[in-house]
Amino acid sequence: MRNNIEFTYNEYIQVGATNKNCLKVLPFATKKNQQFVIGDTSGTINVFEFNKGELGLDFKTPPLQKDITRVELSGPNYNAREKIYISAGTYVRGYSRKGKELFKLDTYLTEAIKSFGIEETRLWTAGEYFLNEYEITKDGSNDKSYFLCPDKINDMFIHNITETANYNPILACQDKGIRLTEDGNVLYAFMAQGAVNCLQPYSKEVKNPQTKYQLDRTMVFGLGDGSFVNILFEPDKPVYLWSAGLEEQKKKAGISLIKVYDFQNRGINDVVVVRDDSTIEVLSLNTDQEYEVQYSTVLNEGVTAVDAGQVSVPGLNEFIVSTYSGKVLGYLDSEEVNKVESKKVKENPKDTEKKIKALRAEIDKLKQNVDQLKAEAPPEGVVNTSVNTFKVSHKIARNSNDASYSIHIDSQYPIEFVVVQSLVNVELLEVDSSIAILSLSSTDPDQKNGFAATYRFIDSNVLKFEIKLRTIEGQFGDLSCFVIPNANPKTSQAFNIPLKPLSLHERYLAPVNTTKSNFNTLKITGEFSKSDIHTWIANCLPDFPHNLESEEGEANMTYKSNFVGTYLFLKYSDKAAIFQSESLSCVSIIKDVISQQASTRNVHINIQFEDNDQSIKNVLELLKPKFEYYSAITKKYQVLTALKEISNQEGNSSFLSKESREILENADEIQTAFTQQPKKLQYLKGIITDLYADRAKSKGMHNIGPKVAQLISLLNNFNVEALIQFFTH
To answer: Which of 125, 277, 336, 582 has a 20 to 30 Å separation from 392 between CA atoms?
Structure first.
């Protein structure tokens, strides 16, 4: 295996803005290169092909006036799937590789199609929550089955797991679930460690399968926690094989796209992953049979699709990606490109002359386009009142390692400003000052403005931006974002992000040892249905399943606070729900929110609340390392300047103690942490003062202002025993 492969990057073409998974490489036809197809948000399908090093358009369909939301290939042979199918709104259409329309179906669904698959005469479509199956006939289609998924379906692949005569949609879901289905029923489901964003077959043993049944039953899944896992699907159970991509030292963004392909022709799969922050990585198996990164690059705009094949140079493998703004980029192995270049004979003068003529013709066409735009522009001094429409998308990712949220914004046009506003106070964690200048507005209670920030971009070519923030639990509402492009007249695209009361909690799947735990317990009973209480809990917790899996029986779930480390156990059914947590604040928040929800719906509920004073110590012990960390940062910062002076005077630092040398080596990190320390400590103190206020409320105490001031004074010199004594007396 070669180490640290370098790739040559080329920009091939630009189309309209694209949605996720709307680029595919077609199988070989009679020519040396493979075609590729891309669909954009104008509803146009474009098929391109390289011929003698020049990219040409094979065919282009008229715009459908609807966003193309997915592109798939199909055909009788799995490795020769040359029919092109697209989804747009509720439609599915099919074309030959030469552009002839072969198929058209309106499913009349209530939600737009996000992913689909076609095998023989059967079609499966998936929106956000519904999976539908159709039997295609000469006269149209017949509904065959449907399935309502508990949470969002992020991706889907049609496989053949159970038998030769049937097909099985495999669903990758937002609630961390992977579900194998058949005829509208779940055969089995299991949970991954993060939201399941994408999936791909991982075929090794069968190189040229004729059917899906011959295809290897292993699948690779890209997860929201930054890792990817390989699962073998047996007819009756899943078998975990391996996982890769998690680094203990450095947390990476979630995986949004994944492609399996043998780039090095070793008979071993390489893996291309695209992350939420637009990082593209190529990973290969090393001698220890572990995947390690061989190549990595970061784009300044969102990546919407990735595929692989021999596209631009005959015989050379490459991967191609599409971006949100509509660019198609190709990546070739630089070493292999150099080998091809060295073998090239001297170019025929006639070919050179032909290329020059083509370039001149292209320049003339561009000049004509510029002249036409100038003619259509309003005279000088006249205001252009036409609305400049553009596409913006966003994705929210939770970062479990630091209990924060990342908002990834993609824009079709370069961004000039991003404005963030909310009635809820949030903490902005970091921003790259080389990209944008941040301005914070002061809180204005009269205007009901809890938080407002404006990013003004220095670089005029930024198409993607990440906002990282941390919320305050107990406060909830909407966060509004306004994206303003670098274009005239000024317009903006806006979107809202709901912030839940327990926004720093995440669903937890591993078993929890509760033998030494001290829980606060909330019991709610009343004349409510399981569906009612499910909805009320969903308004408290992020990523809570959108739909009930069953109206019968009792549901059990566990959540974990990513910041504090406490657990929340909940179980609910018709007319009853129980919540248990070491965090008194967590249970108090649930009580307040559900009481408000029930009151709004005029549902009478009975509440039993049992607080446990021993739980206070548990929470303080969990927060102790965070206070100790910032205390240590202060001490290190105080000696850092002196250590630098001594090191500079002596010319080296070898004579210093190991601890002193480590301080010098980590000087930048210490300075950054010390600068952020006041804000971080304020956040930590806020958690403990809220805990005290919640305890006082549960005990019926009033007028606690003087006591809170005393508590803040105690927190300046954090001591668990002194704090416990304060809480209990």
So the answer is: 125
